[in-house]
Design brief:
Layout lengths: L1 H7 L12 H5 L4 E7 L11 H9 L3 H6 L3 E6 L1
Antiparallel strand pairs: 1-2
Length: 75
């Protein structure tokens, strides 16, 4: 995608796979919560196909790979 190519050169750290990695970057930073969107209660309102797809991707490593997680940190 052209839009991503424009900003890709300016990204110093494009992401991380281990949600605890930022704790090593900043002393005192602590991972408080990792929320997997593929397990959200709102999925009950989705179609059968949507619910099945969410179940397939509910494993933590797949959710992280697909960026369907919300991470909450504190100092």
């Amino acid at each position: 995608m052209p839009g991503f190519a424009t900003i890709a050169g300016g990204v110093v750290n494009p992401g991380f796979n281990d949600p605890r990695e930022p704790e090593r970057w900043m002393p005192g930073l602590e991972l408080v919560e990792e929320i997997f969107l593929t397990r959200a209660p709102e999925l009950a309102d989705m179609t059968v196909g949507g619910r099945l797809a969410s179940r397939l991707f509910a494993r933590p490593y797949l959710s992280r790979m697909l960026a369907t997680t919300v991470l909450r940190y504190r100092f």
